Request: fold
Amino acid sequence: MNKTTSKTTNAVEKILGHEFKDVSLLETALTHSSAAESHLNSNERLEFLGDRVLGVVIAQILYDKFENENEGSLARRFAALTSRDALADVAGSLGIDGFIETSPADSATSKRGKQTLLADTMEALLGALFLDGGLEVVSSFITTNWDKLLNSDINPPKDAKTELQEWTQANGLGLPEYKLVKQSGPDHAPLFTIALAISGHGKHIGKGSSRRNGEMDAAETFLRTLKENK
Reply:
């Protein structure tokens, strides 16, 4: 049974700027698998949908806004704007973290774990907005809340894998090696666990809804650690 209260849903509706016709969608979007009776009662299916909705909306925004950029530049912008960090940044700025339903065991998470929790919940909320209000509603929300990220750098950003590859080559470390460690989860929401190996820097683990996303997550994790240790 979902524990999300009407007070919580009302507060999140104000944050999202949308009053839900089907409040159960919002309740589910806020319920992490650790607090749900089963994975089907958690926000995982909505995450899957929200990820795809975000991709479509961001792709069109970039296509319309950067008329003179080639596919490679657009792809780098797309990767940055749909990344875990971008999703977590938007969720954090909106104050979503105070409304996520998790088990007591998951209430105290690491910094990286919290980023993932925020990103996953933001994707689920996008899925819920799409189902309840349609593409126009969720597109308006994304356009408004991704605007700061979209305009934060006039030059196309490099995706994490490209940045990491350039760093390893500049430091004489060769190419990063990515290996699939495990694929888990149901067919509709698979989870890929990827091991990233860099000469002299050990292994780093990344996870994602596709092999590419898992590799990107591992690269992002390594680069973040590298910058924090500078």
In short: The longest strand covers residues 177-184. The chain has ten helices and three strands.
